[in-house]
Fold this sequence. Notes:
Keywords: DNA damage, DNA repair, DNA replication, Hydrolase, Magnesium, Metal-binding, Mutator protein. The chain is α+β, with helices and mostly antiparallel strands and 176 residues long. The protein is 14% helix and 28% strand. The strands form three sheets. A six-stranded mixed sheet has the order 1-2-8-9-3-6, with helices on one face. It has a three-stranded antiparallel sheet with strand order 5-4-11, with no helix packed on it. The site of 8-OXO-2'-deoxyguanosine-5'-triphosphate has 18 residues, from strand 3, strand 6 and strand 9.
Amino acid sequence: MTASTQDDGPLVVPGAEGLPVREPVHVAVGVLIERDADGHEHADSRFLLTSRPAGKVYAGYWEFPGGKLEAGESVEQALRRELQEEIGIHIGAAHAWREIEVDYPHARVRLHFCKVFDWTGEFQMREAQTMAWQRLPVEVEPVLPGTVPVLQWLAEERGHQGVTHRQPSAGPPQAG
Ligand SMILES: Nc1nc2c([nH]c(=O)n2[C@H]2C[C@H](O)[C@@H](COP(=O)(O)OP(=O)(O)OP(=O)(O)O)O2)c(=O)[nH]1
């Protein structure tokens, strides 16, 4: 079974159907994109995916790096902090891009996706994740349910036809 959208409502992941409505947890997510020497994003510009660390829900699933907002933080502040804490880089401007709510069995999340084109520092996977620069279709798997719409948005922007990733993205959350 695959995740489904409902009338502009949240993306509902199997196992979350019929749950009482929960307040969303806000999450800042970075779509890091490599631009060419002229500073342009192209249809085949690579973007960064990271695997979720052991011990977290959906461990081993691929996602865009980011994390939950702390009290009083803006999306951009949270993104800066998370990307430094988790992958060791300092980001430049974060360009607010798209938002979506996803209803998981473990929580409802509101994902604030920002495109990021500039960063400094060496990538360090500080939570023992794995990183992969990807193009469409994405080769790594499995992909987190909340990542699938982002791949679709990128496909639309880039005029990419066909599949965006290898497998239907749904499955029971792991421990954590
Ligand atoms: N980072 C990230 N999280 C995503 C994406 N798509 C998606 O549905 N999520 C969900 C998974 C989680 O339920 C939530 C992020 O929570 P998290 O546990 O990774 O956040 P965190 O790093 O702040 O974790 P922690 O400190 O509480 O352990 O958002 C995505 O592309 N990136």
